[in-house]
Amino acid sequence: MPDLLRERKLQSRRAGEAKGQAQEKGNKLIDKASNAAQSAKESIQNAGCQAQAKAQGVVDAVKDAVNKN
User: Fold this and answer.
1) Distance (Å, rounded) from C-alpha 52 to C-alpha 47?
2) Chain center to CA of 40
3) How far apart are CA 57 and CA 69, in angstroms?
4) Torsion of the alpha carbons at 42, 47, 53 and 58, rounded to the nearest 10
């Protein structure tokens, strides 16, 4: 009987360790996904700013062309 009890305790400890390792891996994956999403957001914002600046340049050029005539 003591061997069975010891074996159950060992299995329980191993299960706890496996659960902890799985949670840690899950947390790392979530962090990676969050970082990737933040990077994508920043890239999109930069692209939007660049497009807005280009559009403003076109508007200014059109205004200058109209005012010259």
Assistant:
1) 9
2) 8
3) 19
4) -170
Residue 12 tokens read as: 């329980």
SS (H, E, C) 7-64: HHHHHHHHHHHHHHHHHHHHHHHHHHHHHHHHHHHHHHHHHHHHHHHHHHHHHHHHHH
Question: Hey, is 6 helix, strand or coil?
Answer: helix
Q: Please give the structure tokens belonging to residue 44.
A: 């999109």
Q: How many residues does this entry show for the chain?
A: 69
Per-residue confidence in pLDDT tens, the chain, 69 aa: 689 999 999 999 999 999 999 999 999 999 999 999 999 999 999 999 999 999 999 999 999 999 886
Which pLDDT score is estimated for 2? Answer: 82
